[in-house]
Amino acid sequence: MNKSKHNRHLKKNGRATSLPFALAILLLLSGIASSTAQNLQLSGNQKQRETSDHNQLPSLSLCPDTIRQIKSTVDAQDLLTDKHIESTSDTDNYKSLVERGDESMLRGHWLPAISAYKMALDISHKEFSLIRKLAICSALAGRYDQSAPYFDKVIRLHPTDIPLLAGYAQVLIRMNDFSKARYVLAAAKDMAPKDFAVNYALSTLLAATARGGTPEDKCLSTENELRAYWDKLSVTDMCRVAKWLKGDRQALEKTITPDAFNHLCQIILTLKTAKDLDSCTQLLFTTHDAFINEDWENARKMLELCKKEGLNTLGVRMDMSLCELRTGDTEKALETIRKTTSNYPENPVAWYNLGYILFDIKDYSAAIEAFEKSNSLGRPNIGTLFATACALTQCDRMDECFAILKRLATNAPRQLKTLMDGNEETHIKIKQDPRYSTIYKTMTSND
After folding, report:
1. Cβ(325)–Cβ(333) under 8 Å?
2. Can you name the residues that pair with 15 across neighbouring β-strands?
3. What is the pLDDT of residue 308?
4. Of the candidates 309, 240, 310, which has an alpha carbon nearest to the alpha carbon of residue 248?
């Protein structure tokens, strides 16, 4: 995205703020950065958004991939290729059946898709992508007992496929096979402890077993651990999980009881009851639309309503500070983000966002401290390192600035080249330093 586009997102009191590290915000993964990074890539056009939603499975937790991602499973994953099909007529028939199944799946017609895939599987009986599609379509059709054997087969072949493991766990939970679900999730959590779908499945299992079940069926994560995970959600992520809960509601209330589903809503969205789910989802999507449309005043009002409904996650607080900054209320934005770092002192993105606002108000020394705190709490991010270098430049600490730039030029030359593509005050000051020629040569050496 070009610089002028970024400047539109960095306006305050009718003028573009001079933040040369604006692009850095797109390199972070949550909070303000998550919300803007994801929203800048989404269209504010409602019709386009509805089209995108149509390509999602109605019960997303059964398979976190979209239908189009499932449909386009790479041929390299298949166990067999066309050479395993005996005749040309069989090959043509096979392709026709797969196309028919894919078309039905895209329309959400699970039973016709299952029928077509089964006939195709009779021709090429070990095709990985077909077994994968059969596992998912059978689950979405509510045929969990038929889905489970297909999941077993594909997971034996691809035991590190996290979306499949999470989807399989959801099938097992619906079958009340909590012990096996626990076993599957143990493997998934070990490989991807922060994965969205894995933690959703872990929360579902906890809700299903918290009011019953034997100790060995209990979930790997405690309720406090799961609540801490969901507390970090941005508005974008909250929309996603609210949609998952709505999609799963009917099946889960039937299989794990309405009380257990209420408990799941409490764990993930801190709702008092599942009855609030529809209104909560609508509120979240309205807030999300305001972000997409850069309607910061309305987004701020919607976030206040989210807080009143108890949806006061870390991400919501950081999104609020962004709205306050965008609407010119810098003092309030600073107060909000300082409270956030006080409540979440170990969160690196909160500290980055504090530094971002401090830089905006030209308190460069304090911004450096915030950026360095962010860097110290985890693996340093390209964006935070570059932001630190910019703040150091404004304090005339050029030796420290160029030590960071040298590191970035060596380890992330393309990203640094993009970040340096501008003519703002900090860019100019860095480029006028004699040492920049060496940095430039390093980051462009592979062009």
Report:
1. yes
2. 12
3. 87
4. 240
* Per-residue model confidence (pLDDT) at position 106: 83
pLDDT at 247: 87
Give the amino acid at 292. I
Three-state secondary structure string covering the chain = CCHHHHHHCCEECCEECCCCCHHHHHHCCCHHHHHHHHHHCCCCCHHHHHHHHHCCCCCHHHCCCCHHHHHCCCHHHCCCCHHHCCCHHHHHHHHHHHHHHHHHHHCCCHHHHHHHHHHHHHHCCCCHHHHHHHHHHHHHCCCHHHHHHHHHHHHHHCCCCHHHHHHHHHHHHHCCCHHHHHHHHHHHHHHCCCCHHHHHHHHHHHHHHCCCCCHHHCCCCCHHHHHHHHCCCCHHHHHHHHHHHHHHHHHHHHHCCHHHHHHHHHHHHCCCCHHHHHHHHHHHHHHHHHHHCCCHHHHHHHHHHHHHCCCCCHHHHHHHHHHHHHCCCHHHHHHHHHHHHHHCCCCHHHHHHHHHHHHHCCCHHHHHHHHHHHHHCCCCCHHHHHHHHHHHHHCCCHHHHHHHHHHHHHHCHHHHHHHCCCCCHHHHHHHHCCCHHHHHHHHHCCC
Residue 84 is predicted with a pLDDT of 52
The ranges of the chain with pLDDT < 70 are 1-60, 63-89, 125-126, 211-219, 446-447
Half-sphere exposure of 300 (CA within 13 A, CB side): 15
pLDDT in tens, 113-149: 999 999 998 887 667 888 989 998 999 889 999 999 9
Q: Please state, in angstroms and rounded to a whole number, the distance separating the CA atoms of residues 213 and 208.
A: 9
Closest C-alpha among 7, 9, 129 to residue 75: 129
Two tokens, residue 276? 């609030």
pLDDT at 260: 92
172 CB contacts (<8 Å, ≥6 apart)? 148, 178, 180, 181, 184
Predicted confidence at residue 117, as pLDDT, reads 93
Tokens of 210: 């918290």
Distance (Å, whole) CA 316 – CA 102: 38
Domains present along the chain, CATH in parentheses: 1-44+314-447 (1.25.40.10), 62-158 (no CATH)
Token reading at 439: 């940095």
Task: Please report, to the nearest 10 degrees, the dihedral formed by the alpha carbons of residues 166, 169, 173, 174 taken in order.
Answer: 80
> For residues 350-384, b (16+ Cβ closer than 10 Å) or e, as one string?
bbbbbbbbbbbbebbebbbbbbbbbbebeebbbbb
C-beta separation of 402 from 435 below 8 A? yes
